[in-house]
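Morning - heme C inputs below, output right after.
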Amino acid sequence: MANPLKKRYLLIFFITALITVGITLLLVNIFEKKQEANLYPSVFKPVGDHETDPKVWGENFPFEYDTYKKTETNEGATQYGGSDNYQKLEKYPNLIQLFAGYPFSKDYREERGHYWAITDVKETKRVNEKTPNTCISCKSSQVLVDVEKMGTEAFYKAMFKDVGAHYDKGIGCLDCHNPKTMELRVSRPAFIEAMQRRGIDVTKASREQMRSYVCGQCHVEYYFKGDGKYLTFPWDKGLEVDSIEKYYDEYGFKDWDHETSGAPMIKMQHPEFETWSTGIHAKSGVTCVDCHMPYERMGSVKVTNHWIKSPLRNINNACQTCHKWSEGELANRVKTIQDRTYETMYKSELAILDAINTIKKAKDGGATDEQLKEARKLHRRAQLRWDFVAAENSMGFHSPQQTLKTLADAIDYARQSQLEAERLMKSVAVK
Ligand code: HEC
Ligand code: HEC
Ligand code: HEC
Ligand code: HEC
């Protein structure tokens, strides 16, 4: 039976609830507007063309500056990455034999945040009196100022101890942004030149392309060309490891002679851009920035988080915008890919070590350099592939299938090298 009093109470209850919701929404809205107003100051202070101090830029863009500064934070290691600059030679002792005769067998640290780039290059035992200035190219925004002042060739030709060693700023706003317009820019000549040789005009890049190019100017494989130590990306034949090897073979390039096997070796350097470009995410238009600098909501605006780091520390913003899987599931997918890569990589290391030691035995047994040529060539081929994966910083995640193929080829070449050395040992012993 309807009770008029009960009806009236219900009505009052609903009206009160509506008013409460209304007031809450209004407050949220005011709060968001306030946050937006706080995000950027109302007066823009122009930044000079050579402003290398992120703090000065930060006066205009406090959110970006605050998050950029966090690249100083050490959140500890993830299973295969993270911001802890631990000594890799302790965690992976095979590296000492694999890099025998090369400075990477003396000091090889895990990378960390951009803030540290200048400190870490000055501290590594790999630099010395004879280090060319080229090695500072991707470590500091002060590079841009001196490249303009000195000219690109003279900049590379100089010695690190005379130029780069005196820098005090790491990677900063100037490396990625045009100070007048704040647009993304590629500031490093080597990337522009390498793309030009492949028929790509970087100045015509779309915004989406720029969201990977801006990282690709540093996170790549490179070498120092000729006596001028001219920084060059080996991309003329393509970005896959097979094309890069062909390029180096034709040019007759080597970084060092392996101390144990005597093979002419190539050291690969962090080929993130190349690896990413062969993967499913690149093919689907997903850029470095989508995962490593995801948007954050500040009130009703979206801003770019400048705390560049391992996406495993930020799965919610880095992956869940596109993938509806749970955080645990996403972490697990990454772990599965990385563990499979690591296990296969480890097997390739053992195969390469077998090749190295068998070549040494053949040599000690009397095989000549001429006879050992083929086994050494195969050692080089195996190890540059292993290193293309080992020096890349995602442990296979950036391109899982291509990475496993690269490792399969590495194992194959290593065992071929070992077989060839064994064959030699027998033939030398018979004589
Ligand atoms: C689909 C997401 C995604 C894209 C796109 C992506 N990455 Fe990554 N990246 C990852 C994940 C996941 C890891 C593994 C992190 C770990 O092991 O802690 C990683 C690792 C890295 C690392 C090592 C981080 C560390 O903590 O040691 C670097 C450097 C890196 N990526 C650079 C790049 C660059 C440069 C690009 C573009 C050319 C790119 N990434 C594109 C997801 C992505
Ligand atoms: C001017 C060169 C340069 C540019 C441009 C650059 N990086 Fe880096 N990046 C570096 C260097 C050098 C390090 C290693 C610093 C160290 O270990 O001291 C690094 C480290 C990193 C790391 C590891 C961070 C950690 O906490 O372990 C990630 C991830 C990364 N970069 C991603 C990117 C992405 C994404 C972009 C593009 C938006 C980019 N980088 C642009 C040179 C660069
Ligand atoms: C490693 C490269 C890199 C560095 C260093 C860097 N930025 Fe950015 N910044 C980006 C990228 C990538 C975007 C996204 C641009 C896009 O998608 O068009 C961005 C966007 C921005 C934007 C546009 C608003 C937003 O948040 O999306 C501002 C403002 C900005 N950055 C300021 C700064 C300031 C200030 C610094 C130095 C403290 C800085 N950036 C350092 C790469 C960088
Ligand atoms: C901007 C959107 C976007 C972001 C951000 C993104 N992904 Fe993806 N991801 C895709 C697309 C698109 C594919 C291709 C498959 C598809 O169409 O579903 C894909 C595929 C994958 C696959 C399947 C790969 C394979 O080889 O089959 C995995 C695993 C994955 N993503 C994990 C991640 C993780 C982990 C992150 C965060 C670090 C992430 N993704 C960030 C869009 C994204």
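Note: The first strand starts at residue 223 and ends at 225.

O.
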